[in-house]
Amino acid sequence: MAFLEAKDVVKQYAGHLALDHVSVSVPENTIFGLLGPNGAGKTTLIRIINQITGPDSGSILINNKPLKSSDIARIGYLPEERGLYKKMKVGEQALYLAQLKDLSRRDALKKLKYWFEKFEIQAWWDKKVEELSKGMQQKVQFIVTILHNPQLLIFDEPFSGFDPINASLLKDEILNLKKEGATIIFSTHNMSSVEALCDHITLINNGKAILNGAVHDIRYQYRENLIKLEYSGDTDKLKETINNSYEIIESGPSNGFSSLLVKMDEGNNMNQLLKLVMNDCEIHSCKEVLPGMDDVFIKVVNENK
Amino acid sequence: MNKTILILQREYLTRVRKKSFIIMTILGPLLFAAMFVIPGWIATMEDRDERQIAIIDYTGLYEDRIDDTERLKFEYLPVNKESELRSNFSTSGYYAFLLIEDDLLKRSDAIRLFSDGQITMDVRDHITRNLREFLRNEKLRTYEMEGLHEIIAEVNDVRVNITTLKLGEDGTEKHTSTEIAMIVSILFAFLTYLFVFIYGTQVLRGVMEEKSNRIVEVIISSVKPFQLMLGKIGGIALVALTQFLLWVALTAMILVGVKTLFFSDSPMPSRMDGIEMTGTEYPAGAEMENIEAAFAFDQIMESINTINPVNTLLLFLFYFIGGYLLYAALFAAIGAAIDNETDSQQFMLPITIPIIIALWVAMAGFRNPHSDLVFWFSMIPLTSPIVMMSRVPFDVPGWEIALSMVLLVAGFLFATWFAARIYRTGILMYGKKVDYKELWKWFKYSTK
């Protein structure tokens, strides 16, 4: 069931169509990737979901009901352009931002205490933000975003500015949040994190949603029938056998064996390849190579130019 | 609305806790009081060194015509000493020497005063005063008229002494003082100007800070831009009010303190003129000065009372808040439109100009508070807070004040509405060079 739905959303800025009848459906309790090149309209869509701006036409449904202003409390938003008051103390500031999200002072204090302990940053409470490094500030921002237990979390480029240690901490926390039932929208350029985290994606380009679906399905949809074969045996003979029917893209050592990357025809042809080669060599593994999200992204965007 | 209060609270507390706020709050009244006290204090602190002044008089007419004072001693030297004095002046021990070369009634510039340093005003004034008195009498004597001296003295004694009185509605008379009204008028106009400017700029800085810190989008996802703007403007307004009220209270305390210290009726030792006085044995002269000063002080207080301090203060608060709100909204819009302070210049100008014009017109208002020009500018919301405050001490008709107040309220509502439209688009625009065309686009865009 879709937790959040954007239906036919249009947003026109002066002389520029930011969103052109975009529809997006985010299934409940999944991690949803909102992808697209710079200036595609991702941030505009996110701002509309956060009610920072309104759509010119179209509607946003949350749990099948139109979005209303009190829904702000159900959403946690970590913007791409994020910052904190530099001169304010960390604890005081976190408390203030939590209260703006309708948390009572007492609840906010309790929860902040929990998270500060979890991230081992209690010592920062009375420090001014300007004394913190950028990565430290990001941690504080992350805590503030999720503090009010929102059902919907929106992270816009969450990993930018994080060092690898903090990035993996963040990744774990995002997966944890999903486990606890949250629905997460995740906007990024970082395709490896998409493959690692996302269940579904929508690709937006030039204000249009050009690709929708489960990550796994999409990778299958764009597969190029590449099969990687690991074997030991006579390479030349094997190449000769295969070259009669199929194209060999690559050959080389792999995991201590020899390997070939073979481009097959349409359809499931792993069996055919196996039949063809099984008498010429000893097979150690054989698997279909799916395109990375990176390749899909570039391909789809270029197709839609 | 709750969130607006939360924002307001933060804006207020972070500013009031700043060291600069506390320092300004304490320093303000001290500076203010110092403006009155220090010149007087310096005057009493003048050096009391005795100064020797040599006089070389080629005419011999002016012997003993210049009186010695406590600090100035005049010594007549023979004319042959002139060249010696000129060449060795710095070692001669004289502060200055006066050279008279001709009859001053014939040649008034035949007198010169030399020194190796800057000669103070009081020395020159003292000499001029003494010689003029003598020369006048000499001149009068040349007319050879019987009793001329007495006639002149009598003529000189004719005086016009106008007491300005204000008739109350019940016919009672009160002393008024045009000077006091003017001072109050200048003071309030200037204070309004100062506060609108200082705190308006704080709004601009605050908005810009949020924008350049990139915290604005975090906040905007929890509250409406309008709430954020209102909270900020309101919070800073309270800071301004706090500062102003503290200033009033502290200044009042200092004034009361000064009064009891220096103008007390009880025989309390006064150090005002630097002479040690104990018990009742202080010199008669000092006592006179003291009584005169106390009298003048009371008169000022009475005059201040005639301009109705409570009403004036309430009006000041109204115009100050109204003017601040009007400009603060505009400052907020500018802060939202720009990325850094250097970009602010082109947008600051159209806001600064009305404030400066208002100050000019207010200056005219001190002299002629009921002219057409002053009237109109005290109606226009952009200038009325300053111009009207300059008129208030001079009895402005009630309907004029009421109309001007209504217009000001309408003005700031309009400005807030106008600014909010630019603000909500501007705060989310980064790294874009903005001009007036762009602002107009934002304004129109928001109407959708």
Structural write-up:
The complex is a heterodimer of chains A (305) and B (448). Chain A is of the alpha/beta class. Chain A folds into 2 domains: 2-220, P-loop containing nucleotide triphosphate hydrolases (Rossmann fold, 3-Layer(aba) Sandwich); 224-289, 2-Layer Sandwich (Alpha-Beta Plaits). Chain A is 34% helix and 32% strand. Chain A has a 6-stranded mixed β-sheet with strand order 6-7-8-3-9-10, with helices on both faces. Chain A has a 4-stranded antiparallel β-sheet with strand order 2-1-4-5, with helices on one face. In chain A, helix 2 (90-100) crosses helix 3 and helix 2 (90-100) packs parallel to helix 4 (134-146). Chain B is α/β, with parallel strands linked by helices. Chain B has 2 domains: 2-40 and 178-445, no CATH class; 51-156, Periplasmic binding protein-like II (D-Maltodextrin-Binding Protein, domain 2, 3-Layer(aba) Sandwich), CATH 3.40.190. Chain B has 16 helices and 6 strands. Chain B has helices at residues 2-16, 19-44, 82-87, 89-92, 121-142, 148-156, 178-213, 216-220, 225-262, 284-306, 309-337, 345-367, 372-377, 384-391, 398-426, 436-445, and strands spanning 51-57, 72-77, 96-100, 111-114, 165-167, 173-175. In chain B, strands 2-1-3-4 form a 4-stranded mixed β-sheet, with no helix packed on it. Chain B has a two-stranded antiparallel ribbon with strand order 5-6. In chain B, helix 7 (178-213) runs antiparallel to helix 9 (225-262), helix 7 runs parallel beside helix 11 (309-337) and helix 15 (398-426) crosses helix 16. Chain B: InterPro entries: ABC-2_transporter_component, ABC2_TM. Chain B: GO terms for molecular function: ABC-type transporter activity. Chain B: It is a multi-pass membrane protein. Chain B: This is ABC-2 type transport system permease protein. Chain B: It holds the Pfam family ABC2_membrane_3.
Structural class of chain B: alpha/beta
By oligomeric state, this entry counts as: heterodimer
Q: What is the count of β-strands of chain B?
A: 6
Q: Main sheet of chain B?
A: 4 strands, mixed
Which fold name corresponds to the CATH topology of the largest domain in chain A? Rossmann fold
Q: Roughly what fraction of the amino acids of chain A lie in strands? A: 25-35%
Mean pLDDT across the residues of chain B is 79
Order of helices and strands of chain B: HHEEHHEEHHEEHHHHHHHHHH
Main sheet characteristics of chain A: 6 strands, mixed
Helix fraction of chain B by DSSP (H/I, runs of at least 4)? 55-70%
CATH class of the largest domain in chain A: Alpha Beta
Q: How many separate domains of chain B?
A: 2
Shape descriptor of chain A reads elongated
